[in-house]
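In this section we turn from sequence analysis to structure. A common task in structural bioinformatics is to predict how a protein folds when a small molecule is present, because the ligand can shape the pocket around it. The inputs are simple: the amino acid sequence and a SMILES string for the ligand, here zinc ion. Study the lines below before reading on.
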Amino acid sequence: MRRWQWQQAGGRRHAYDAETTRPQVGDPLPVLCGHDVVPGEADLLGKWLEPTCWACDREVRVRENFPAAEIPPLPEPSSAPEAPSPRTLDVSPRPPHPRGPH
Ligand SMILES: [Zn+2]
């Protein structure tokens, strides 16, 4: 079993240490990026549609001793934690701009 497991919570997919942590509905989940997140029932049972937490992704790479070239820099120090990252791949498609009737 891999030590670093992923769990959706708080609007992101975070990584946690499976050796010490077991996600429970309603229990605070210690995740690698240090955010305070609490998985809900839908997070444990439903589909995971939330974007990856890149801070957790980076932490996993660092702890797994990935080569430096495969460890991405964090997008922003902390000034804009919710700013969209250029590495975000799962951007939901925007609806076409509505136009007036012909
Ligand atoms: Zn995280």
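The mean pLDDT is 84. As an exercise, try to locate the residues that line the zinc ion site and compare them with your own expectations.
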